[in-house]
Amino acid sequence: MSTATLPEPLASQNDPSHAAHPSPLWHAFADMSKVPETRVVLERGQGVWIWDTEGRRYLDSTAGLWYCALGWGREELAEAAAAQMRKLATYSTFGDMTTNTTLELAERVASLSPMPNTAVFLTSGGSESIDTAAKIVRRYWNVLGRPEKRVIVSRGMAYHGIAGFGTSIAGIPANREGYGPLIEDVHVVAADSTQELEKLFAERGHEIAAFFGEPVRGAGGVYPPVAGYWPEVERLCRQYDVLLVCDEVITGFGRLGAWFGSAHYGIQPDIITGAKAVTSGYQPLGVVLCNERVQEPFYSGKAGVLRHGYTYSGHATACAVGLRNLEIMETERVLERGAEAAKAMVELFEPLRRHSMVKQVRTEGLLAGIEICEDARKRVPNVVDQVLWQARKNEVMTRNMLGHSLQFSPAFIITQEELRFYVERMLTSLDAVAARIA
Ligand SMILES: Cc1ncc(COP(=O)(O)O)c(C=O)c1O
């Protein structure tokens, strides 16, 4: 190993009680042999800023895992949770039970939907929403007497969470590997090819239940679709009678400027999955929005009981936080502010685009993927981590996407000054790594 591949130590690693602290915590999406070397323990947040237990400050350029739309430290959300907990923390929504808070959240979410008369199924997060959507589409065709329509089609390098169906339809092959046989009757197509999709639909449309896609592929590296992609997918789905499911776990609730990415691209899917920004991540909550067509067999009595649901489906405290979050988003024009920040971002990111270490900066709404150039990645396999570690030293928290790009998905309330801070500190970090590996 050349010295260039060694991690740049964080200042906090000088404190052995911090870095080498043994912990039984098994981190998500992590190589546990490496985590103790670089672990960061975070403690508090305010706006787009977070602080670790050493008192070190970072600009949170990812809003946690794409979710903290409002920014950190909103007392109102804590109060909404506490008020609900004092009344009734939650109650099961199985069968005919629910709470008023849960009913209100469903109504609020339905009112934002691009589909008329939306029904809202509630879950605890994105992966559960995807599994719910997948089971609903299969059950839908089954009830309609077409059980052969089972195949779920997804896009290359798509991410749909890590539960059973989401793992099975993942377009990121590494996320499927090593688990043995998963769910059958799934098919991945090239991400932007409507030609391939049309060929597949023409040949196998009679057995295809649904097409699942993220409006902008997120965890795969932030890839906006090619021009005209979504309207053409919508047209093909209608022509071949395939249900269209938009996975809006990242794009839902305002990240592209509209409440949903589907509306941003001018399409009306049959189902929309969402999570994350619905509560700004202050509580775990997922949503599955279904149009009238999808609801019909389940609401008319044809399907009987839909034997599906989670202990925390419609969790009242999560719904209370969601309601307050959505209310603040409206009263404080948070979507508009996000859209303004997105516009400023495109211009302010020019110097990043031109940096010798950067291959490409892909943007859409308040999302960006900053791809590190191939030459550096070939020479130094962990170069993206090196930039990330350097960025931490320079007070920016970012995230490595698949070893090629860095994620930018800040809170919608990020200011131009904070955007400038991010760009400056990222340039300094890129310069430092470029000099080290030269
Ligand atoms: C598009 C998409 N779908 C599904 C998921 C899974 O959501 P969760 O991690 O809440 O289960 C994610 C998570 O990032 C996502 O980006």
TrEMBL record:
Keyword set, alphabetical order: Aminotransferase, Pyridoxal phosphate, Transferase
Polar residues composition bias: residue spans: 1-16
Family classification: Belongs to the class-III pyridoxal-phosphate-dependent aminotransferase family.
Cofactor requirements of the protein: pyridoxal 5'-phosphate
Database matches in Pfam families: Aminotran_3
Residue ranges, annotated region (Disordered): 1-23
Molecular-function annotations in GO: pyridoxal phosphate binding; transaminase activity
Organism superkingdom: Bacteria
UniProt name for this protein: Adenosylmethionine-8-amino-7-oxononanoate aminotransferase
